[in-house]
Amino acid sequence: MTMNKQDMGVNVGIDVGKFQLDIFIWERDRHFTVENNDSGVREAIKILKRYKVQCIVMEATGRYEMAFATAAFEKGLPVAIVRPILVRQFARAADQLAKTDKIDAAIIARFAALMKPRLTKQRSENLQLIKDLVVVAGS
Q: Rounded to whole angstroms, what are the CA distances from 86 to 53, 107, 117?
């Protein structure tokens, strides 16, 4: 039995910025951008829910990824928040050094598809707040 391309899941890479999210769906070669705020996150989730998502990968970027990750967890979407160095090393190994938000999102999506990173477990808001306080206190 062969699998139809529509039945296959997709891997998503998100280049997280302070003000915008660049989102790339690897298996569909589709890129779109939304604002990194509540309405933009809702719009992105709505679009991604149309697909059978295997993994959404985002780099840990100073907590700018948390609004999207929280919303994705609430909708049951699989999220992996990875250390930026892993994606950077992957890009270097693939000789992909060009830097635009769209290219970064595509590299992150390719990383998701090929490297199959471990999914991030959803953390409670209180646990995250405590962790943030410990980090600030230790600085």
A: 21, 11, 10
